Amino acid sequence: MKTLTLAELATITGGELHGDGNQTVSTVAPMDKAVEGSVTFLSNVKYAKHLADCHATVVMLKEAQREHFHGNALVVDDPYVAFAKVAQALDTTPKSAHQIAPSAVIAEDAVLGTNVSIGANATIESGVTLGDNVTIGAGCFIGKNASIGGNSQLWANVSVYHEVNIGNDCLIQANTVIGADGFGYANEKGEWIKIPQLGTVRIGNRVEIGACTTIDRGALEDTVIEDNVIIDNQIQIAHNVHIGYGTAMAGGTIVAGSTTIGKYCIIGGGTVINGHIEIVDGVTITGMGMVMRGISEKGMYSSGIPLQPNKEWRKTATRVHRIDDMNKRLKAVEKQLTPKAES
Questions:
Q1: Where does the record place the catalytic residues (predicted)?
Q2: Catalytic positions, written as ranges
Q3: Which domains does the chain have, with CATH numbers?
Q4: What is the mean pLDDT of residues 293-305?
Q5: Which of 38, 61, 252, 300 has the most crowded Cβ, counting Cβ within 10 A?
């Protein structure tokens, strides 16, 4: 268990402390469950009603809310960002490996930086380069000539195929596969002819990838994930996709091949994005979106049908199937009602 003084919290968050800087905290808790020794935060004003009864040692909040709490208060610009920083400081999650396990299989010509850890039964193939402080979890496979930058960590059973390049300070959760073949085939008289995927995957710095996600290698050019991208669990990114700086993708999203997604986009869970299209910077797609065409203007986009009682949904579905017929009938009525031009 880690313990921090309130003075240390002020330094970590850049906030202004109103209270006793020598008091300590060791946990982060929701406001209504916080007890002595915990730190909490108020990021949504609708929860301000809990301030009067909050038993946390310190509350992180904005200046406008400070008068409503009479205990230790840490005034910050963004309480949710402050929470993230404090949670990092109190985090006790272990590393995925410590030192180099005797059962790890490491090629003689692999280049390992200082303080590298490799877990049990991991395989590091010929030509691999691992930067300083890299941690490879148990059962991982790192293919020929792949490289992983300093301070990056892979959890158990991650597979990194040949020649994949992963940058610095990346975090990849368990069972993710990076660099598998893209889905490329030609058809000759009903027979599928496999197209070798000759590109690779290039992942930038400070990228986080969730569990059981797959990122395919490019067919000719590379699949590219730029810096500061966060990718959730169980996402499929196909060959030759390019994802721009700072984009966030929620779980279950599928991106088809040769699609470009711009910078600072937010892709909601369960979204399906068609191939060979471009999405510009600053686009938000809400959950279950179906993107069939490129998006050329930033903004928020939605599709999908919200949940309805089954009887209502059946009616809606029936009407959707009749839209073409209804459109034809409407045009016919409009034609009858439109006065004919005088000759």
A1: 239
A2: 239
A3: 4-90 (3.40.1390.10), 105-301 (2.160.10.10)
A4: 95
A5: 61
